[in-house]
Amino acid sequence: EAAKVGACAPSPFDAILDASRELTDGCDVVLYTSSLGYDVEDIRLQATYKEPEEGEKEVCNVAFVPGDSKLVKKAIRKVPEKSLRQVGIKEKDGVIDVAQRLAALNGRILHKGWVLIWLPDAMSTSLPNDATHLPKMSPGRLFAPSARRVMFVDQNFTVTPNSEDVLFLASEMHRKALPERTFVKKDEEGKKHKYKLPDEPEREAVILFNKLKQRKPKDDAKQDGPVPKDEKLSVYEAVKYMVFEVGGDPTQSDPKPLKQQREFYERVPTFVNRDDLRSIYEPVHRYEMRHWVRSRWVLHDLSSEEGRQLRCEWYEEHLRWGNDLDQLSFAHVMARREVERKFARDKPDDHARAAMPKHPELDGMSDAAEWHQILRADEAEGVDSDGNPLALKTMEKVPEHLFDPEEEEEGEKAAETEEGGGNEKEKRVDLFARIMSDKVMLLSRKVWSK
Question: Which of 154, 238, 207, 187 is nearest to 361 (CA)?
Answer without folding.
Answer: 187
